């Protein structure tokens, strides 16, 4: 069969070779071959219902499409210069296999506008299932590590300054719950992705009254896009997935930043596995957290995918315009980047070594200044007064070039008469965290309840 563009009948002149390359998308949208075959098979069945093809022709189309799929899977599909996209390539090859007379009927009433929108939704919904499985695996590692390391007490930070003691597991669960929210959003997103555009035609609808409810059921969609113009123009599902990817990468990046800081020599709270570290080309002593830095860096890449495509979409007039071809590379890149990143973070977290001794040495008595104030609160003194009293104790210790736990009982009594001999018991990190026992707190029972909540959500 001579190479011929699907839209070539209107044109007599040749296309600029650069324009041909500029226009084609086959080299990246070929990954949707499976979705394109599935959509074409369903559409062929719908055409048979309307008498456009007979049962014999339908059988040949279905068999031919499976042959096309098999060639892609075996990496034996040979591209031709006229194959500008996956739809063109598959239809051309189908014609070679079963003859153009029958293959040429497949596109009856169908446009590449509704075809590509269908393919992308079919492709993306399968990728969402894969990404979801990776995210669930990551959250399971969070739960496991939190249970394992429940006894470690660390400094909690605000403004990167030591604030109050918390459990290491509490810190881990803070990140886990951000990612759990991402999992919830992904589940909600799936339904909006899984809506059927096929049968919308180029923009005005299908002139052969194909049964769109049949197509919806046959292809496993949750619903039908009710307006044909909207069906071919809508890329909100692409943008929404890329927004979701940006959100999850924000959370991944923030955890990566924490681990980068905690793995530095100044902290040494954690040690990364060699599998997720690299060395220096000039400094033999270096062990660099490249996995974490890449996670942090690739978040910017994903943000860029989303913003770049939104800028392409914002000025497009109604229905399909070729600008929308910009959706694919951005979407494909986002899917791969976020998928790879979740898997890398899972590896980092599951192989991470926590250094309890180093963490314990970083605990300082000034972090218990709030506990010192709360001692008086328990004796009926308003917190606004006790905060001032505790601040005076901190100042007294600083003036003496010591720490507040080294002040004497008499020193504390000089600051407030309700301080008694047992005030020295305030300076116990384990007791401090155990006092934070309201739901969501850092007491052991609370953290284990958080782990339980996470596990139940995953189940």
Explained architecture:
61% of the residues lie in helices and 5% in strands. With 459 residues, it is mainly alpha-helical. The protein folds into 3 domains: 8-108, Fumarase/aspartase (N-terminal domain) (Fumarase C, Chain B, domain 1), CATH 1.10.275; 113-361, Fumarase C, Chain A, domain 2 (Up-down Bundle); 365-458, Ribonucleotide Reductase Protein R1, domain 1 (Orthogonal Bundle). Strand 3 (195-196), helix 9 (212-219) and strand 4 (223-224) form a beta-alpha-beta unit. Helix 8 (168-193) runs antiparallel to helix 11. The model has no long low-confidence stretch (mean pLDDT 94). Pathway: Amino-acid biosynthesis; L-arginine biosynthesis; L-arginine from L-ornithine and carbamoyl phosphate: step 3/3. Belongs to the lyase 1 family. Argininosuccinate lyase subfamily. Residues 9-304 form the Fumarate lyase N-terminal domain.
Runs in which pLDDT lies below 50 for 5 or more consecutive residues are: none
Question: Which strand order does the major sheet show?
Answer: 1-2
Order of helices and strands: HHHHHHHEEHEHEHHEHHEHHHHHH
The secondary-structure class comes to mainly alpha
- Strand content of the residues, in percent? under 5%
The protein's oligomeric status is single chain
In short:
It is built from 19 helices and six strands. The chain has helices spanning 17-23, 26-29, 33-49, 55-73, 86-98, 100-103, 112-148, 168-193, 212-219, 228-233, 236-262, 290-313, 326-351, 356-361, 369-377, 383-399, 409-415, 429-435, 444-458, and strands at residues 153-158, 161-167, 195-196, 223-224, 270-271, 353-354.
């Amino acid at each position: 069969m001579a190479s011929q563009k699907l839209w070539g009948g209107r044109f007599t002149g040749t296309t600029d070779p650069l324009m041909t390359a500029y226009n084609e998308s086959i080299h990246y949208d070929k990954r949707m071959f499976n979705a394109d075959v599935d959509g074409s098979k369903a559409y062929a069945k719908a055409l048979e219902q309307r008498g456009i093809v007979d049962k014999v022709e339908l059988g040949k189309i279905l068999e031919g499409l499976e042959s096309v799929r098999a060639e892609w899977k075996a990496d034996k599909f040979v591209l031709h210069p006229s194959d500008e996209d996956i739809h063109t390539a598959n239809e051309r090859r189908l014609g070679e296999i079963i003859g153009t007379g029958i293959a040429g009927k497949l596109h009856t009433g169908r446009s590449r506008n509704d075809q590509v929108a269908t393919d992308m939704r079919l492709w993306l919904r399968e990728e969402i299932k894969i990404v979801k499985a990776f995210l669930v695996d990551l959250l399971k590692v969070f739960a496991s590590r939190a249970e394992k390391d429940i006894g470690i007490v660390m400094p909690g930070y605000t403004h990167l300054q030591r604030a109050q003691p918390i459990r290491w597991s509490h810190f881990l669960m803070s990140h886990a719950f951000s990612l759990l929210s991402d999992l919830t959003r992904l589940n909600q997103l799936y339904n909006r992705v899984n809506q059927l555009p096929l049968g919308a035609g180029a923009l005005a609808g299908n002139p052969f009254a194909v049964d769109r409810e049949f197509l919806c059921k046959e292809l496993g969609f949750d619903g039908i896009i009710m307006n044909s113009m909207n069906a071919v123009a809508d890329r909100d599902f692409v943008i929404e997935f890329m927004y979701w990817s940006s959100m999850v990468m924000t959370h991944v990046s923030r955890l990566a930043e924490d681990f980068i800081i905690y793995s530095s020599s100044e902290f040494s709270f954690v040690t990364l596995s060699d599998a997720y570290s690299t060395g220096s080309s000039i400094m033999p002593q270096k062990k660099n957290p490249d996995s974490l830095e890449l996670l942090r860096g690739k978040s910017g890449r994903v943000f860029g995918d989303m913003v770049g495509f939104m800028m392409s979409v914002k000025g497009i007039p109604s229905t399909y315009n070729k600008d929308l071809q910009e959706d694919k590379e951005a979407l494909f890149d986002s899917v791969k980047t976020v998928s790879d990143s979740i898997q890398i973070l899972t590896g980092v977290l599951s192989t991470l070594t926590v250094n309890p001794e180093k963490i314990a040495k970083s605990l300082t008595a000034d972090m218990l200044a709030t506990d010192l104030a709360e001692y008086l609160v328990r004796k009926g003194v308003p917190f606004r007064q006790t905060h001032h009293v505790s601040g005076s104790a901190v100042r007294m210790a600083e003036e003496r070039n010591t720490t507040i736990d080294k002040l004497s009982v008499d020193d504390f009594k000089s600051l407030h008469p309700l301080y008694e001999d047992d005030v020295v018991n305030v300076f116990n990190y384990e007791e401090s965290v155990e006092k934070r026992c309201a739901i969501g707190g850092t007491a052991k029972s609370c953290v284990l309840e958080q782990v339980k909540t996470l596990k139940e959500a995953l189940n």
